[in-house]
Batch of 2 targets.
Target 1
Amino acid sequence: MRGPPASVIPREELGASRRLARTIQRTLGRSLHVRHLDAGSCKGCDWEIAALLNPYHDVQRLGIDFVASPRHADLLLVTGTMTRNLEEAAVRTYEAMPEPRLVVAVGACAINGGVFAGTYAGRDGIAEVLPVDVFVPGCPPRPEALIHGLLVAVGRMDPYRSNPESSPLTRSGTG
C-alpha cells in the first residue's frame, strides 16, 4: 500500500517528510532503525507511534524501520514514566545499542513523569536514567510531532564520526 495521494497530505508535512528521508539517507547511508521501549505508559503514546506505520503517515517510505532488538537499533524511542522496576532493563537496552545511539523521550510522562511525577514507583522523566537527545512533548504527541522529533534526532547524528563524545553536536539531556 502506498499511502494517500500527495494532494491529501498537507504541503508542510510533505516537505518535512522529504527532508527527513534525505537526512536519514545522508547521515546513515541506510534506513533509521528504531527500537521502541515502553517504560510504563498508559499506551496513548504507543498508539500514536503505531499510527506512524499506517497508510497515511507510512514512515517506512521515509526509511524508518522499527526493529525488535536493540542491537540493530540506531534510536531508542521511550514512552511512559520510567518505573523503578524497569530502570535496569532500560539501561541494558541502551547499552546494547551500537554507537552512535540516540534516545528520544516521547510524551509528558517520559519527559517529566507527567501525572505520575513525584511518586514512589517512578522517576520524574527518563532523563534521570538515560541520556536523552530529543524530547517530543504532548499527551500523547501527534504523529506529525513524532516525525518532527525524529527529524531533529537524526540531525544530531554526525555522519563522519562513530564516537558521540568526540562529536561537535551536543546532547540536550542531563545524562
Target 2
Amino acid sequence: MGGQGIARREALRFIGIASAAAAFPGFSQWAFACSHQSTPSLTDAARQPYKPLFFSAEQFRLIEHIAEMIIPADNTPGAKEAGVAEFIDFMVANRVAVNARSEIRSTSDAIRQGEAAQTRFVSGIEWINAHSKSQCGHWFLDCSAEQQKSLLEQLAYKAKFKPTTEAGRDFFQMMRDYTVVGYYTTKIGLESLGYPGLRTAWPKMPGCSHPDDPEHAHLPKPNEETAAAFKIAN
C-alpha cells in the first residue's frame, strides 16, 4: 500500500492533531516531532515494550501490521519502525478522532467522533478477520503476504472494489487516516517528505522551555489578561 505521502502543508495540521499524544510517557517507539526530546533518551535495550491501552495484544498486532502495509519500509523506515500502532492505540483509547477529510467544530463533536472511532475500529478488525476467513480460510495475520495484499487492495482501490465490502473499505480508510497522521508527525515521517529545510531546521526546532516539568505542574497560573488571550487564540 505504498504511496501514502502527504502534501507538506498538511503536516502542520497533522502536528496539531498529534500534539494530544505528545506528553504520554508510555510510548516505546512513537515520538512526536515537537516533543521535549526529538530522540528518546532510553536505549533500545532499556526501552520497555509498549502496553496497549485500548486494543488487545492480538488486535494491536493486526493494527501494527496493516499500518506497515500502508506505509512500508523502503528507502526510509516504515510505519512499524515509527511506532505508528502505538499512536493509533493511544488516540483511539483517548477518543481522539483523526479524520483527514473533515473538521471538528466543537468538543462534544470531537468526543462523539472519538467514541465512534472506537466502535469502528473494533468492528473493522472483526470484519477484516471474518472476510479473510471467508476468502482465504485464515484470519488476516495467518494469510500469506500475497493474500493480505490482495485483500487490502480490494478495500483501498476503487477499481478493485467488490460488493458488500463497504464496512471493510470504511475501516481501511480510517486506518489510513490514523496511520498517515501518526507517521508524518514523527521525525522519521517528516524526513521522508524530503523537505530540505528539515535537515537544517530540525536541530534548532524550538521545544518546550520546561523540559524538567513536562506536565507544567509548577508553572504559575496565568493572569486574567493572559488567560483571555489564550481563550481567544483557541
